[in-house]
Write a structure and sequence with these properties.
The protein has 442 residues and is mainly alpha-helical. It is built from 22 helices and three strands. It has a three-stranded antiparallel β-sheet, sandwiched between helices.
């Protein structure tokens, strides 16, 4: 439904990921409206009786909890996607009329799918919301959906995204890329305008194996957003690409839009924090921390480290009193961040312990695409520990493996001891030239 609502001019629509978290909640509409920052809620229910569906939909005024419009639909289960599209369009048309905007174009008849295929699809996207650790489960369910219905284009696009993210974060198996490519091609053959397919193609393109081709990925992300302005995941990906190449203002705008659409988009929050840090936006970071946000540990620790609150950064990742053995239970990026923090605190022995754990992972022998931030933190640690050659080696590796941000690398205080190092001078000049080109081409 967010797709149709997103095409209403002047309307800001919360992404389905955020809305999904309110499923089953009986909160007063006013409370939900305040949490999401919206004026109108769409509520619905679904009951199945044999081969029939009874769907109820309503528009609720969040200001006073009154019903603006409601309708009931009785349809057959063998045409569930058409039912969804029809109801979505009717809700969008009603909402557009209430705000004085033109109704979106009524969608063409959607392909049919089976209830079992649709159920597997929903289970798959639910698994994807759990993050990288649940991608294998998402792939399993989405494969089941397309096996049950080979013409289910949206399920194919989501399956492609799951493959790309598994390849990016967890397993550098080229077969995952090949499977993603096949699913994207099949999805676009069924529906050439499918936003989720262009999102998946951008995700497939932008990885270490392909050399992070920023222009191609951004072009596909803009195409996805044009097709579905409310596709929060596309804005998240756009913010990700922009922050890594140092286009700070564009990254902030994309991540803020993602968070407007999906206030619970953790990845957008993390990248917004990164953009504030990389752009030297200290005031925004302090203001956000002052509101005591429920940020993930790594994001919070990164913010503390940037603001000079090094002890708070350490305590966020590894509580006081915990033994160094606890480091083995922490993920790679957090271990590398700890090494940086310990080095700044002149706790050289602890920094070296953290480095011994982080380096085998961050060396990235298997070619994953998300090790560059750990590599950057390792470079900072080595610079503070008085090993400039190792520091230049690791910051160059970070730049080459997906984090060529000239604004970040050129201004990091803990790398300033490298300013006269020939390797660092050469790296900064290359990054500066790339940055100037990207400012005009991306």
């Amino acid at each position: 439904m967010t797709r149709e609502l997103g095409h209403i001019e002047g309307a800001r629509v919360i992404a389905s990921n955020a809305a999904f978290t309110y499923r089953g909640r009986t909160d007063d509409a006013r409370a939900i409206g305040r949490e999401l920052g919206v004026e109108v809620l769409v509520r619905g229910s679904l009951q199945r009786a044999g081969e029939r569906l009874r769907v109820s939909a309503s528009l609720i005024n969040a200001a006073d909890n009154t019903t603006l419009w409601s309708q009931h639909y009785d349809r057959s289960t063998d045409d569930i996607l058409s039912v969804q599209d029809d109801i979505s369009w009717q809700v969008a048309a009603m909402l557009a009329a209430r705000i004085g905007a033109a109704a979106p174009t009524r969608p063409a008849h959607a392909p049919k799918t089976t209830p079992d295929a649709y159920d597997a699809y929903l289970r798959g996207i639910s698994e994807m919301r759990g993050g990288p650790g649940q991608l294998a489960g998402a792939i399993r369910e989405l494969k089941r959906a397309v096996a049950l219905d080979p013409n289910f284009a949206l399920a194919r696009a989501k399956l492609a995204s799951a493959y790309t993210q598994q390849f990016f974060y967890n397993a550098s198996d080229p077969a995952l890329e090949q499977e993603a490519f096949i699913e994207i091609q099949r999805a676009l053959a069924i529906n050439p305008d499918l936003a989720e397919a262009y999102l998946a193609r951008a995700q497939l393109t932008w990885n270490l194996r392909n050399g992070f081709p920023h222009e191609r990925a951004i072009a596909d992300l803009h195409r996805a957003i044009k097709a579905n302005p409310s596709l929060a995941e596309a804005h998240v990906e756009l913010g990700k690409v922009y922050v890594h190449v140092g286009l700070i203002d564009k990254s902030i705008a994309a991540n803020q839009e993602a968070l407007r659409l999906d206030p619970r988009a953790t990845a957008a929050t993390q990248r917004l924090i990164a953009a504030w840090i990389d752009g030297g936006r200290t005031r925004e970071l302090i203001d956000a921390l002052g509101r005591d946000p429920q940020w993930p540990a790594r994001a919070r620790a990164t913010a503390f480290l940037y603001l000079g609150r090094t002890k708070d950064a350490i305590d966020t990742i590894i509580p006081r009193g915990a033994s160094m053995a606890a480091l083995r239970k922490i993920e790679m990026n957090e271990i590398a961040l700890l090494a940086h923090a310990y080095a700044r605190e002149k706790r050289a022995a602890d920094a070296q312990t953290a480095l011994r754990l982080a380096i085998p992972l961050a060396a990235n022998a298997t070619g994953l695409s998300d090790t560059h931030h750990a590599q950057f933190e390792i470079a900072c640690a080595y610079a503070l520990l008085g090993n400039p050659d190792k520091a230049v080696e690791w910051v160059t590796k970070a730049a080459n493996e997906g984090y060529p941000s000239y604004p970040r690398i050129s201004t990091e205080p803990d790398l300033q001891s490298l300013s006269a190092h020939p390797g660092f001078i050469k790296l900064l000049e290359r990054l500066r030239q790339d940055y100037e080109r990207w400012r005009t081409s991306l």
